[in-house]
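Long-time lurker, finally posting.

We've been working with Uma2 family endonuclease (Thermoactinomyces daqus) and I want a structural starting point before designing mutants. I don't trust myself to interpret raw outputs, so I'm hoping someone here can both generate the C-alpha cells and explain anything notable. Sequence follows.
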Amino acid sequence: MKSPAYETNTRYSYRDYLSWDPDERWELIDGLPYNMTPAPSSKHQEILGNIFVLFYQYLSGKRCKVYLAPFEVRLSEKEEDEHTFNVVQPDLSIICDPRKIDERGCKGSPDLIVEVLSPGIAEKRDKTDKFELYQKYKIKEYWIVDPFNENVEVFLLENNRFANRQVYVKGDVFTVSIFSDLLIDLNRIFKDESFE
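Top reply, 14 upvotes:
Generated this for you. Predicted structure of Uma2 family endonuclease:
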C-alpha cells in the first residue's frame, strides 16, 4: 500500500484514500491529503477522554452516539467514493441519524464535532480549513478545544453559517445546543490530574 504523492497538485478521492497504507492516518480536505502524525500529546488525550466520558454517559440509552478518532467522516454531495474529496477524522463526533453510520465510519454530517488543538499546522487546519468544511456541510455545533489556554470555542450553525460564537473558560458551565438538558462543566474537562 502506498501513501499519496502529495508533493504533486493531484486531487485525491476517497477511492484513492482507501488504497493507502492503513497504518498511517490521513485526512482529505477538498482532495488534498494531510498526514495526521505525529500522535497527539498526553494532555490532548486526557482532555478528549474527559469530553468523551461526559457525552458517553449522557447518551447512554439514547439515539445519538459518540465516536472517538480514528473515525472517518466522509463529507460529499455525491454517494460514490470517487466523487468524495473530504474525509476527516474529528477528535470526537456525535451522530444522531443511524443511517449515516456504516462499517467505515460516518457518511454525511455529524450533529456535533469536537477538535482538540495540537500546536502547529494542525491547529491552523482546525481553525480555518476544517472550520470552513464543517460550516459548508452544516455541522450544527463545532467545538475547538484549546488545552493550553483551557478554553472552548463553540460555534453554532445559524442560517447555514457559524454565526454564533461563544468562548468558555475553565470554571464556566454551558449548555450543549443540540441537547438542551446537558450542562458541560469545564472544570470536569480541564481537570488537574497527576499520577500519585
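Before you design anything, note these points.
The longest helix spans residues 42-59.
The mean pLDDT is 92.
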